[in-house]
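thought: fold this chain, then report.
action: predict
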Amino acid sequence: MQAYKTKTKRLTGTTYGELFPKAFEIYKEIKKQTKRKPYVRSAYFNKDKVFLDLFWSHFHSKNAKDKARRLKFYPCALDLIKNCKISPSTFENPMSKNDLLHRWYGLSKDGSLFIVQIKESKSNDQKYFISVFPAN
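observation:
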C-alpha cells in the first residue's frame, strides 16, 4: 500500500457544526469557478474532471459523528485528487456492475492516514468523488 502525502492539514474542530462551514466554504470556492457541476481536475486521470456533487449527497446520509470524522479530511482529499499520480486499488462496484471504484490511501500533513474513493462510470467515463474517511 502506497500512500500519497498531501500538502494540506486536516480541518480543525471536533463537531459537525464546527467543521461543516469550513468544508463547505472550500466547496463553494470550487463551485464559483463553473456554471455547471463543480469539479476538480485529477492528475491520475490525465486532467479529467472529477465531479464533487455526489460526495455531498452521500455525505448527508451519515450520522453527525461520522460526518465530522469525514469532513476533517475534505481538504486533504481534494489535494490528493488534484495531485496524486499513484495507482489506486480498483475494483468493480458490488452494487452496480456498470461502475468502477478507485480507492487511494493518503497521509495528511499532520500524519493521519485516510482513504479517498472515486466512482467511475463505465458507460460515460465520468468520475465522481464519493467519499473520504480515516483509514483506522
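thought: worth noting. The longest helix spans residues 16-31.
final: C-alpha cells above.
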